[in-house]
Specification:
The protein has two domains: 47 residues, no CATH class; 153 residues, Distorted Sandwich (Glucose Permease (Domain IIA)), CATH 2.70.70. It has four helices and 14 strands.
Amino acid sequence: MFSKIFPKLHSEGYKFIVIAAVITIILYSLSSFLGLIGLVLTIWVYYFFRDPERVIIEDDNYLVSPADGEVIKVEEVDGPKELSLENKKFNKISIFMNVFDCHVNRTPCKGKIEEILYKPGKFLNASFDKASEDNERNYYKIKDVHGNDIIVVQIAGLIARRIVCESNKDQDLSQGERIGMIRFGSRADVYYENYQPLVKIGQRAISGETLLAKK
C-alpha cells in the first residue's frame, strides 16, 4: 500500500523536487496561500517523476506498451527514414503521455538494441502528426527474438525539453525493461512487423503491462 501512495522516484526527479521545495519555501515566506500553491506543485513534480514497478507478461508472442497514456494512432506506415527503413512497411501505434502520466519508457519486447539515434528538433504538441517528424526524438531499433525489427521512438512534446536515454547500443533487453524517460508531456511511437494490433484509438495504455500486439 505504501508503495502505491508513494511510488519510487526516478533519478531524474530528485533535482526537480529540490527546486520545487525551495520555491515553495520562498513562496510561503511571502504568503501562506502562495506556499500552498508551491506545495501542490512539489507534489505534482514528485508524481510526474514516479517510477512504479510493473507486472510484465514476459511472453515473446506479445508486444507491451512502452508508455503510459492514450493510444492516438493505430496505422500502417513506412518505416522511419532516419533509420533507412522508409522502403519497408510497418504497423505503428502512437501513445500520447499527458503531464499526469508516468513518463518512464519501457521496451515492448525482449531483444537486442541494434541502433540508438537521437534527433534534435522542435517542440510541437506531441499529439500532432508532424511531431513524429519535426520534434526532438530518440529512436531505438530493437531486434526481437523472432528476428523482427521493433522501433521505439521517444518524442518530446510541447513542454518537454529533454529526452533521457538509459540504454546502450548492443544492450540485451528483457521485455518491459526501462529504456529511458521524457520530461513533462510527450509521446511514444512503436513501429513493428509480423504482429497483429490488440488496441484501438482512445484506449488507455500502461507501460510494461498493456498488450499492444500479438504474434
